[in-house]
């Protein structure tokens, strides 16, 4: 009897695959499991936020939350989600959005919405208090001393940033007080000086409000923190009454509606110092026309372009010290009214002013988003601010030189001369290399091979 079993000797196998039932796809939608997952996401968001208040200042704060949740969901629920048709990305994004809308604590909103009702009586009291605060006149000795005596909202972010930033703000505050002189009209700073008032005029018209400047004041209980917002809404019957305004006019930076770290910190400090809970962050970019003809050709109306962007004009005058900008009223919508307004202003202009030119502009980009006050964030970072200021006071006496950036020693570079090239030629000849160079009349001529080795068919192997 053969010890082998042949294929033909095997019995026919029954197909039992159909007897196995495929496990059902887990449907999360409209199920308890789906609700449990949403609750888990909400708990994880809350856990991250309350453990990382300091991270609020970063533009990618929500991205940090997303990564934290995603990693935890993978670890906790991956075995369940593999067989489901759930879109975990959308669920996490919706969870983050709902969390911040429900708690009214986003880093910033996507627009300038109305979120809370106004306590007008409290705002009234604050305005009366602001009027009692001493306001040194700008660029006077008292004004410079006032700013030197504390950390202002525009630069205080450095005190809670990298070691290099902390060293930079300590050095700047320890150096002898230096007054600014001269004006560079091409600088980004001057671009803000030129277009910030115009941006505020557009904001006022857009929301039927009035914005007033209250100057720079000191925190009620923290004397080293000072802040000066660009303005505060003061029209009492407007729903934005008491809301602060911060304006930026970037020259080249793209406007995306998300406050940069330094700007977000600046607004938080402003709200803390002025004890207000909301700040509109307004960003605008303008383009200037080459001349009046180019301005007139862009659009069928005086104050709107072909693509329906706002446009207008301003006068640049000088008082003998610095340029001053006079903005035409935004309601002017024809050249005749503009000419009449311009002529009337020039006639009443005092002799100490001289007309420089008329600037024609168009509003290229406009973004306005609401930034809410975050008390928890301020509480979490205040010890670092206090430590920085204490260090400044100390090192104004003991010295701060050790914080200055270390100068890098420049590597010495030897210039090539005919003699050095001659030596190089002789040395390579001694080594037995033919560098394919020649010396003619004391001038080094280097012959460069211009043909690729791959192009030289004589050097390619035959196939």
Automatic annotation (TrEMBL):
Transmembrane parts of this sequence: none
Q: Where is the YqaJ viral recombinase domain?
A: 142-273
Give start-end positions of Basic residues composition bias: 403-414
Q: Name one Pfam family in it.
A: YqaJ
Q: Where is this region: Disordered?
A: 400-421
The protein, known as: YqaJ viral recombinase domain-containing protein
Q: Which organism is it from?
A: viral metagenome
